[in-house]
Specification:
Oligomer: single chain
Number of helices: 2
């Protein structure tokens, strides 16, 4: 028996060093702006560690609209925030999505079909926003 579910909502905010007038930020941490591990911990309670090429990789639990999610934030060697990615469980999709769309606009919607070992089918729905000159 096959079932189709909304698997999770992934919110990806990506950037490089070209900044439009609109600022992408999450709880005061702004994409394309400098930050540091202590600020990330203070503002988001996420812990950072050094990754490949001396990038800072920060992970932690966060909330949007009272819903818990798992965040991954990346800063380059200069401490510039270049990615914020937040994943939410499917049961919270309809709560979180309107809040995010209201704050960041439409974004790019991608749907990926996946199937688990038991044969259940899922949709992974990912919204991505990028600044001009940003990463996809």
């Amino acid at each position: 028996m096959n079932h189709t579910f909304k698997r999770y909502l992934a919110i990806c905010l990506l950037t490089l060093l070209t900044f439009p007038a609109f600022a992408f930020d999450f709880k005061g941490i702004e994409l394309g702006k400098p930050s540091d591990p202590s600020t990330i911990y203070y503002e988001l309670r996420a812990r950072c560690s050094k990754g490949v090429n001396d990038y800072q990789i920060c992970n932690g639990d966060v909330t949007i609209a009272g819903v818990s999610g798992i965040m991954n934030l990346v800063m380059d060697q200069a401490g510039i925030v270049i990615r914020i990615s937040i994943n939410f469980d499917s049961e919270n999709f309809d709560t979180v999505l309107p809040e995010v769309l209201n704050k960041f606009g439409t974004g790019k919607r991608s749907v990926f079909k996946v199937q688990n070992k038991m044969g259940a089918k899922f949709e992974n729905i990912i919204y991505t926003w990028k600044k001009a000159g940003g990463l996809d």
